[in-house]
Amino acid sequence: MAISQMLTIAAIATGAVAQLKTCSNNGTFSCQSSSKSPTCCFNYPGGALLQTQFWDTDPATGPDDSWTIHGLWPDNCDGTYQSSCDSSRQYTNITEILKSQDRSDLVTYMDKYWVSNSGSSESFWEHEWGKHGTCINTIKPSCYSDYSPQEEVGDFFQKVVDLFKTLDTYKALESAGITPDESKTYELSDIQSALAKIHGNATPYLGCDSDSLSEVWYFFNVAGNAIDGQYKATDTLSKTSCPSSGIKYLPKSSSN
């Protein structure tokens, strides 16, 4: 499928306002330019940004009627990626940082929708920031016009949540008659079609664990910086791990 139509993500005003430097190249999308130089207004090499989600059933995490947040990952426009790019900013106090920025409501939301199935939420957030957030070049401290320590951390987590709120995977599947069930199975193409409707007609990546639906990754190209730039939905750069048919979508309650 060709690159899809533009999908602009509206900012949700919560917490501090980003003081990132103004970008004048909002018409230049990442992964779609001959430029190979990272700037505060051009995401490179991690030009594609992925809003990733989990469907955990064993053990179950989050509400029974919602997928949960995995993260926001920069991808090198080809399915490869950098990781853990700045050890000096691999913080171990994400909750404290967010609360110090008057983002307590954000923490409350994350406690419900951004949870780990194998450890504390705090350690999960630390991992996602350290491994992926530090590799987004357009939110480096040098990209702020009036930088406050750890300001980019709050902006990162707020942006992930804002994107997640625009991509309600559970409702999109439910609208297509695809609901969690112990015995029903579904076609890959039907699941992809249902999710493309909330993603600018672009096909997301679907992940399966033993033929059971477990992950979705929504790919974007971005013009400007990763926080207040313009997001455009694009097709997956990764091959699905799900079969073409016989996909299970187990209810979370099945693990209780």
UniProtKB/TrEMBL annotation:
<dbReference type="Pfam" id="PF00445">
    <property type="entry name" value="Ribonuclease_T2"/>
</dbReference>
<dbReference type="GO" id="GO:0006401">
    <property type="term" value="P:RNA catabolic process"/>
</dbReference>
<dbReference type="InterPro" id="IPR018188">
    <property type="entry name" value="RNase_T2_His_AS_1"/>
</dbReference>
<dbReference type="InterPro" id="IPR033697">
    <property type="entry name" value="Ribonuclease_T2_eukaryotic"/>
</dbReference>
<keyword id="KW-0732">Signal</keyword>
<keyword id="KW-0378">Hydrolase</keyword>
<dbReference type="GO" id="GO:0005576">
    <property type="term" value="C:extracellular region"/>
</dbReference>
<feature type="active site">
    <location>
        <position position="132"/>
    </location>
</feature>
<keyword id="KW-0325">Glycoprotein</keyword>
<dbReference type="InterPro" id="IPR033130">
    <property type="entry name" value="RNase_T2_His_AS_2"/>
</dbReference>
<protein>
    <recommendedName>
        <fullName>ribonuclease T2</fullName>
        <ecNumber>4.6.1.19</ecNumber>
    </recommendedName>
</protein>
<keyword id="KW-0456">Lyase</keyword>
<dbReference type="InterPro" id="IPR001568">
    <property type="entry name" value="RNase_T2-like"/>
</dbReference>
<dbReference type="GO" id="GO:0003723">
    <property type="term" value="F:RNA binding"/>
</dbReference>
<comment type="similarity">
    <text>Belongs to the RNase T2 family.</text>
</comment>
<dbReference type="GO" id="GO:0033897">
    <property type="term" value="F:ribonuclease T2 activity"/>
</dbReference>
<dbReference type="GO" id="GO:0016787">
    <property type="term" value="F:hydrolase activity"/>
</dbReference>
<feature type="signal peptide">
    <location>
        <begin position="1"/>
        <end position="18"/>
    </location>
</feature>
<keyword id="KW-0255">Endonuclease</keyword>
<dbReference type="InterPro" id="IPR036430">
    <property type="entry name" value="RNase_T2-like_sf"/>
</dbReference>
<keyword id="KW-1015">Disulfide bond</keyword>
<keyword id="KW-0540">Nuclease</keyword>
<feature type="active site">
    <location>
        <position position="128"/>
    </location>
</feature>
<feature type="active site">
    <location>
        <position position="70"/>
    </location>
</feature>
